[in-house]
Task: inverse folding
């Protein structure tokens, strides 16, 4: 492919020990521009931040998308890509390495080994800032991978990244650049299969299997961040009746129903119902789908006097920006309160929030408050759980820690 000359290819199922010889790619920019920053940015970068905000930039000698050296006086603070349109015009990719190909592909190779140590088949190979590759997400689902790019300068490496994914043994590569945030970088929305042909695959998780549609599903097709919490939920599969609210393609309900519980799935998205049905069939799940808005469906179930042994709540991020934080907290409170009402005494509530601005302590406060309002008490099984290990948390970027998951016995 001209960019990398692997002396040995890595294949899923073997542990690759790849040595790459880096050569200059044909047609790719290898110029290095310069961005000078103020004391504030210098301090933040020295503390580990990968973001240089527009207001902290003193001067720019670079074209849009160019690899730049970030300087503070005579000192080089790091290297990254320059995005002219962004409110974060420089994303730092490296502290001391000045060649973008070396930085990107050595890191991809290292992360492959690191993530494969955690998970063998399906995993988040790259979690953007969490893995020190800002703006890049790569998810692997067995023989199909999906990637998203959200940094202008990184876009020019897209084809090489796709080739690299194939070299690591994942034959089918889907581009899922169909998200709005790309517009802030001046990048167009795009999606499609760009290597191989396949976009639908089957993965194993704990004791169950899922069909994943990487091309048409939400985000990159499947919520890998909840994997460990879903596997943990199997401990409650001795239940008789389960409610999986905001179920997507069946995530929690499939695990909870694996030993014969009757599972009711609540989901608004019409486009996911077929996959949900396919996953129910694949795992012999006994139950039904209750389509519609979660709040309306839960109120309807209460009116009918339904009761459940286990309820999972996994709403989409209800906080959309600073403006609706209080409204979002009220929405979490309401849905948790309705679920608690529907739980039998001693029932299990599995409740999640992927809204980053809500802290774990605040989320626990909301769930506790909802229980107290109903005159119920909760006891937590374990602490407040978080996202799967492949969604690496990089402390200088608090946004890389976002998921809260509480397993509570509701008395
Ligand atoms: C974070 S995902 C759930 C992921 C799932 N628990 C899993 O493990 O795969 C949230 C789901 O809620 C659905 N949803 C969004 N708004 C909803 C609403 N008002 N009522 C019901 N479902 C909704 C979305 O379509 C999406 O499938």
Result:
């Amino acid at each position: 492919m001209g960019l990398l000359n692997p002396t040995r290819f890595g294949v899923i199922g073997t542990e690759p020990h790849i040595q790459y010889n880096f050569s200059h790619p044909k047609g790719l920019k290898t110029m290095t521009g310069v961005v000078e920053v103020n004391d504030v940015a210098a301090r933040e970068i020295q503390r580990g931040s990968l973001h240089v905000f527009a207001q902290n930039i003193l001067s720019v000698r670079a074209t849009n998308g160019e690899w730049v050296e970030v300087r503070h006086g005579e000192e080089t603070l790091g290297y990254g890509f320059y995005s002219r349109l962004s409110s974060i015009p420089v994303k730092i990719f490296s502290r001391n390495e000045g060649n973008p190909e070396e930085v990107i592909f050595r890191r991809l190779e290292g992360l492959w080994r690191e993530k494969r140590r955690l998970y063998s088949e399906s995993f988040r190979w790259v979690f953007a800032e969490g893995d020190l590759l800002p703006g890049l997400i790569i998810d692997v689902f067995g023989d199909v991978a999906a990637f998203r790019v959200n940094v202008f300068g990184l876009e020019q490496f897209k084809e090489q990244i796709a080739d690299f994914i194939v070299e690591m043994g994942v034959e089918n590569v889907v581009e899922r650049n169909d998200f709005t945030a790309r517009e802030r970088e001046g990048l167009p929305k795009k999606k499609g299969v760009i290597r191989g042909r396949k976009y639908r695959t089957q993965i194993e998780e704990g004791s169950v299997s899922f069909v994943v549609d990487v091309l048409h599903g939400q985000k990159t097709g499947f919520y890998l961040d909840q994997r460990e919490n879903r596997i943990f939920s199997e401990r409650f599969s001795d239940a008789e009746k389960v409610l999986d609210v905001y179920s997507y393609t069946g995530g929690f309900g499939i695990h909870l129903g694996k030993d014969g519980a009757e599972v009711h799935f609540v989901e608004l998205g019409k486009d996911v119902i077929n996959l949900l049905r396919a996953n129910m069939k694949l795992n012999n799940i006994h139950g039904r789908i209750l389509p519609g808005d979660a709040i309306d469906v839960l109120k309807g179930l209460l009116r009918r006097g339904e009761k459940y042994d286990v309820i999972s709540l996994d709403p989409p991020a209800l906080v959309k920006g600073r403006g609706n934080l209080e409204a979002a907290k009220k929405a979490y409170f309401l849905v948790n309160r309705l679920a608690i009402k529907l739980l039998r005494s001693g029932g299990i509530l599995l409740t999640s929030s992927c809204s980053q601005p809500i802290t774990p302590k605040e989320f626990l406060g909301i769930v506790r408050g909802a229980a107290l309002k109903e005159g119920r008490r909760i006891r937590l099984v374990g602490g407040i759980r978080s996202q799967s290990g492949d969604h690496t948390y990089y402390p200088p970027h608090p946004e890389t820690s976002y998921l809260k998951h509480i397993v509570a016995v509701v008395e």
